Amino acid sequence: MEIKRIKTPLEVNIIEQLKAGEKVYLNGYIYTARDAAHKRFIDTLNEGGKLPFDIQNQVIYYCGPSPAPPGRVIGACGPTTSSRMDAYAPKLISLGLKGMIGKGKRSQAVKDAIKQFKAVYFGATGGAGALLSKSVKSSEAIAYEDLGPEAVMKLNVVDLPLFVINDIYGSDLYESGTAQYKK
Predict the structure, then answer these.
(1) 54 catalytic residue (yes or no)
(2) What are phi and psi of 171, to 5 degrees?
(3) Residue 162 forms beta bridges with which residues?
(4) Which one of 34, 67, 91, 159 counts the least CB within 10 Å of its CB?
(5) Judging by DSSP bridges, how do beta strands 99-102 and 23-32 pair with one another?
(6) Phi, psi angle pair for 133, to nearest 5°
(7) DSSP code of 168?
């Protein structure tokens, strides 16, 4: 299977070409944020404020990296369970978020928002945080530093290996993959 190389910011014409089950290498800038940061995003928006970065066409990686060891730009940075962000994701997708990276299934509300607003959910391999960190070429905390490892960080990634889990056509790799083994 061919591995597609895609870059951020994610444009709709690229998202329209992605299908659940495909492998991709993601390149460019992405942002880390977990549930505490997502709650702050929504609270800020509800209070009429602005997000700490322009969310238009961006990708959020559900990750809380460990501290960088000597000579590295980041520590292990594996995905966290995405369903913890499901209460917040539809709003962010409606505002222009185009990609999310994590592990695990998404709610129907998130899958509906992905279809409606043309976004994509990528899966990263859980338990491979040290390996995934090798794709990170730079990192900097940009917001909510009081959250420690859950601060919002801007990462520059090169060939971050991912799978398309949910595409704009309603396909779900967790469902189709499971169905193959039930035949």
Answers:
(1) no
(2) -80, 150
(3) 24
(4) 67
(5) unpaired
(6) -65, -20
(7) T
> Which listed residue (14, 24, 26, 38) is catalytic?
38
* 52-86: pLDDT as tens digits: 999 999 999 999 898 889 999 999 999 999 999 99
- CATH class, 3-181 region: alpha beta
The sign of the torsion formed by the CA atoms of 19, 178, 103, 172 equals positive
pTM, two decimals, is 0.95
Task: Read off the pLDDT of residues 96-120 as tens digits, 9 standing for 90 and up.
Answer: 999 999 999 999 999 999 999 999 9
Hey, where are the domains in the chain?
3-181
- Residues forming a β-bridge with 120: 99
Neighbours of 178 (CB within 10 A): 10
At 174, is the secondary structure helix, strand, or coil? Answer: helix
Name 126's Cβ contacts closer than 8 Å, sequence gap at least 6.
78, 79, 103
What DSSP assignment string belongs to 5-73?
Answer: EEESSPPHHHHTT--TT-EEEEEEEEEE--HHHHHHHHHHHHTT---SS--TT-EEE---PPPPPTT-S
DSSP run (H or E) holding 153: strand 152-166
